[in-house]
Design goal:
- By secondary structure, the chain is mainly α.
- Among the domains are: 93 residues, no CATH class; 127 residues, no CATH class.
- It has a two-stranded antiparallel sheet.
- Helix 2 packs across helix 6 and helix 10 runs antiparallel to helix 11.
- It is flat, with a radius of gyration of 39 Å.
- The relative contact order is 0.09.
- Keywords: Membrane, Transmembrane, Transmembrane helix.
- It comes from Actinomadura nitritigenes.
- This is 5-bromo-4-chloroindolyl phosphate hydrolysis protein.
């Protein structure tokens, strides 16, 4: 399918808004409803062992030792243009903590406050361990894609007939929601925002089920079945055809609504043009009042053009006379022989 016949992902309006936003921002995490749901992240023994070693070392390096200063010096040694951006990739608070903690520890030690220095190191170590553990959690997009699997539909969930119908529905929905009439509140903007996504999801769900049934029919290889068995399958064919016709009628209704929205846009545009006519007419009247001055200016410009033509003719005549009276360049005799 090309891009024009390829529908966009469709999300169940019942999915929480925050999760829908996360899913829409990470389409690479989505798994088609026709495929098995993503498995939860597996933690192997090797992963656990690596984390047991890596997390404390990470927390000691950045939370207790001057790892932040070492990182800044390392980035500076690379002569990077974005030194600040590279240093702040964890955020301002962690960077501030890992830069100030070593200095405060040294200061406390110099003041003889060993207990306070140890306490500060322990607090910093604990904070960096917690931060590392939070970083190791399952990404929000992966979690949402797994938990809401089946409540979003991708292009892979539709065969060609279903995809074409869904694209028609999505174009109609987009035409309404992008119309000026909707944006200015001339249409039921609240109803459009709520009802149209529900209609899109209902249509997509039905078309996905049509696709599953047609794919099952291909697997059945009806040409290999006996006439008696094929006769048993005929009611299923009729039911699928009736359902396809029903969803097509719904899509046609959406398209008719989109056309009405377009006609409302035209009428709104026309009303704005009519509202601006009085002010425009006044400007045109001012323009006509200045035509007398324009005629006088045109006469003056024509006179200037005639003067320019006379000057040009005089210059051309002088150049022609100069060419007629200029003697031919005489070459030396030896150069004439070599020519």
């Amino acid at each position: 399918m090309n891009d024009e016949s390829r529908p966009r992902p469709v999300f169940d309006p019942g999915i929480p808004v925050a999760d829908r936003a996360v899913l829409a921002a990470a389409p690479e995490r989505l798994v088609a409803a026709s495929l098995p749901a993503p498995a939860p992240p597996a933690v192997t023994a090797a992963t656990v062992a690596a984390r047991v070693l890596w997390i404390p070392a990470f927390a000691v390096f950045y939370g207790v030792l001057p790892g932040g200063w070492l990182r800044v010096f390392f980035l500076a040694s690379l002569d990077q243009d974005d030194l600040v951006g590279g240093a702040l990739r964890w955020g301002r608070l962690p960077v501030l903590a890992m830069m100030l903690t070593p200095a405060l520890q040294v200061l406390l030690l110099l003041l003889g406050q060993q207990e306070a220095a140890v306490l500060l190191a322990a607090v910093s170590f604990t904070g960096w361990v917690i931060g590392a553990l939070r970083h190791l959690r399952e990404p929000a997009a992966a979690r949402a894609a797994r938990e809401h699997h089946g409540r979003y539909l991708l292009p892979a969930d539709f065969d060609r007939p279903a995809a074409r119908l869904l694209v028609r529905a999505q174009r109609a929905v987009d035409a309404v929601l992008r119309s000026q009439s909707h944006r200015t509140g001339l249409l039921d903007d609240v109803g459009n925002t709520v009802v149209l996504p529900r209609q899109e999801w209902a249509i997509a769900s039905t078309l996905a089920e049509h696709t599953r049934l047609r794919r099952e029919r291909v697997v059945q290889q009806t040409e290999r079945l006996s006439p008696r068995v094929r006769a048993l399958l005929e009611p299923q064919e009729r039911a699928l055809a009736l359902s396809a016709r029903s969803v097509t009628v719904r899509i046609e209704a959406l398209e008719a609504y989109a056309r009405r929205a377009g006609e409302a846009d035209d009428a709104f545009h026309e009303s704005r043009v009519l509202a601006a006519l009085p002010e425009q007419n006044a400007r045109y009247r001012d323009l006509l009042a200045g035509t007398v001055g324009d005629e006088m200016a045109a006469a003056e410009i024509r006179g200037m053009a005639e003067d320019a033509r006379r000057t040009e003719r005089a210059l051309r005549e002088e150049v022609a006379d100069a060419l007629d009276t200029t003697p031919e360049l005489a070459l030396p005799k030896d150069q004439e022989e070599t020519r």
